[in-house]
Amino acid sequence: MAQAPTLLSELAIRTALVMNLRSRLQGGEVLVEELGVEHGAARIDVALVSNHLIGFEIKSDFDNLDRLARQMHTYHRIFDSLTIVTTMAYSAQVEALLPRWWGIFLAAPSEDGGVVLTEIRPAMIHNRQDPVSLAGLLWRDEAYGFLVAEGGAVVKAKAARHTIYEAIAKAIPLERIRAEVTATLQSRMSLRPRSHMAS
C-alpha cells in the first residue's frame, strides 16, 4: 500500500524559509514576519527589508488560494518584488494566476523530516508601487516628520494619517519614499518570531 504524501504546514514552510533567508542576510537587512500593510488590509508572511521591500507569501498544503487575488493586488502597491512559497499541490495554479514577475519557490518534504525549498522562477522588480500605500508603512509621527524634513506641503501636525501620506505622495518622489521607509524599518525591526508592526 502506497504511503500517503507528507503534507506541509505553514509553520514548517515558514521555518525553512526564514532559515534560508537568514543565512543570506547582508549588513543592515532585516526580516519581518507577518508584516501588516495598508493598516491591516493584508499581512504578508515574511518581508525582507534591504534597499528594496521584498515580500514572501506562503500557501501551504492546508491553505487555499481564495484570498490570493486580493492579497496580490494589495502587495503590488507595497513591495518591489514578490515570491510565493507553495507546494506541489498549488504549483500549477499559482504559475497560471500570478504575474510573470512573481517568483515561485516550491516547498517539499526532505528526507530528514524538514522542508527543502527549490526556486522555480526568480522574482523580478516591478514598478507598480503606490506612493500613498508605501508611505503608509511609516507610523504617523514618522510620516509627519519625514514630510516636514523634505519640505513637503504643510499639513497640520494633528492631521489624519491618510492626509499626511497623501501629502508625502504628492510632494516626494517614490524613490525617496522607498528609501525612507526601508531605512525606518531597518532601524525599527529585528527578526523575532511572529514580530508585528504597529500601525
Number of strands: 6
Strand order of the largest sheet: 1-2-3-4-5-6
* Relative strand content: 15-25%
Find the structural class using helix and strand composition.
Answer: alpha/beta
Rg, rounded, reads: 18 Å
The main β sheet shows up as: 6 strands, mixed
Q: Spans of 5+ residues with little confidence (pLDDT < 50)?
A: 191-199
Number of helical segments with 4 or more residues: 7
Task: Determine the fraction of residues in helical runs and give it as a percent range.
Answer: 25-40%
The average pLDDT value, as a whole number, equals: 89
How far apart are the first and last residues' alpha carbons, in Å? 52 Å
> Could you spell the SSE succession in H and E letters?
HEEEHEHEEHHHH
Shape: elongated
Task: Outline the fold blueprint.
Layout: H1 10-22, E1 30-37, E2 42-49, E3 53-59, H2 68-76, E4 81-86, H3 88-97, E5 103-109, E6 115-121, H4 131-135, H5 140-149, H6 161-171, H7 174-188
Description:
This protein starts with 9 loop residues before the first helix and ends in an 11-residue tail after the last helix. The relative contact order is 0.16. It has seven helices and six strands, in the order αβββαβαββαααα. Strands 1-2-3-4-5-6 form a six-stranded mixed sheet, sandwiched between helices. The chain has 199 residues and is α/β, with parallel strands linked by helices.
Name some characteristics of this structure.
199 residues, alpha/beta, six-stranded mixed beta sheet, 7 helices, 6 strands, 37% helix, 22% strand, disordered C terminus
